[in-house]
Design a protein that fits this description.
Elements lengths: L19 H31 L7 H37 L14 H6 L7 H16 L1
């Protein structure tokens, strides 16, 4: 069953957390984000295929190869982001979306609106980042 949303709907703290409207809102947001990334990827691949040029100047060739490499790295990050979006969509379907993986607490609408793939509450994310810094320094 698809939930109908008003055109200007924005999740509110005044309604039950992760009700049908909020789930539909975040599902649409994630699907639109995913579609944008897929479209950008197609455009990048098309431009990379068209750009196969042999440069006589080594500096031009090196510059072109660097640009290609950066673009491919960016696309790899986008591929990983699509995976996280798909995981978030699965969490919506199974009912765990919006809840911290570590504590089970509500992540919060502001955080989810800003970062719809968030899996940790702000407190858990900060603890996680502090641990990463400590272990990175060792």
């Amino acid at each position: 069953m698809v939930t109908r949303l008003p055109k200007d709907y924005t999740p509110s703290e005044d309604e039950p957390f992760m009700n049908a409207k909020q789930k539909e809102f975040f599902k649409r947001k994630l699907l639109a984000w995913r579609a944008d990334i897929v479209q950008e990827t197609k455009e990048t691949l098309n431009s990379l295929q068209k750009e196969v040029v042999n440069f006589a100047d080594l500096a031009d060739r090196a510059s072109s190869e660097t640009d290609r490499s950066l673009e491919l790295r960016s696309r790899d990050r986008q591929r990983k982001l699509i995976s996280k979006i798909d995981e978030a969509l699965s969490r919506i379907d199974e009912g765990s979306y919006g809840y911290c993986e570590d504590t089970g607490e509500i992540i919060g609408l502001k955080r989810l609106t800003a970062r719809p793939i968030a899996t940790l509450s702000i407190d858990s994310q900060e603890r996680h980042e502090r641990k990463e810094r400590v272990y990175r320094e060792d």
